[in-house]
Each structure stands twice: as C-alpha cells, then as structure tokens.
Amino acid sequence: MLFALMAFDKEGALDVRMENRPAHLDYLDSTGVVKQAGPFLDADGNPCGSLIVLDVEDMAAAQSWADNDPYAKAGLFRDVQIKAWKQVIGA
After folding, report:
1. Is 58 helix (H, G, I), strand (E, B) or coil?
2. Which residues contact 76 (CB under 8 A, 6 or more apart)?
3. pLDDT (tens digit, 9 = 90+) per residue, 20-63?
4. Where are the alpha helices (DSSP H) in 32-84?
5. Phi, psi torsion values for 90, nearest 5 degrees
6. Taking the mean position of all CA atoms in its chain, how far away is CA 39?
7. Which DSSP symbol is given to 32?
8. In angstroms, rounded to a whole number, what is the distance separating the alpha carbons of residues 19 and 38?
9. Which whole number is the average pLDDT over 1-16?
C-alpha cells in the first residue's frame, strides 16, 4: 500500500539537513520501499521538508520507516504526517 510521508523541518535546520543528507539518501536506497521522494522548498529555494511516497504493508510499517530515517534520528523535523497516498492525491 502506498503512503505519503510529509516531513517539515524545524526553523533554521538547513545545516542539520545537509549534514545528514548522505545517510538519508543511503537509507532511501537501501530500504527498497521508496517510490518517489523530493524536498519541499522555501521561498529562497532551500529544502525545508520532504515528501516521500512509501510502498509498505501498513501504517505501522510507514511509521517505523519514518522513525528510522536518519533525518528523524537527527531531530530535523518539527512535524511529520503520514497519510494513505490516496488521501493525498484525492483518488
């Protein structure tokens, strides 16, 4: 089942994002469940969050994936929302 993970960075945390980016990208590749991923950008064009579409069994698996993301472990996010992909795209 597809889930959308929408994560929003804490204010002023660009350095935390950039410092943990290599580990985050490795995690995306190594888990094999990411179907799409990309950053949210602020008015200056800097990353300020992430949208990641996961293909996992259920909400618990999506939450587990999110909890183990190196960005989450580094304390980057002020808010993380996980919803069924169909809720996000309105299908």
Report:
1. coil
2. 7, 9, 10, 13, 16, 17, 20
3. 999 999 999 999 999 999 999 999 999 999 999 999 999 999 99
4. 59-68, 70-73
5. 75, 25
6. 8
7. S
8. 17
9. 96
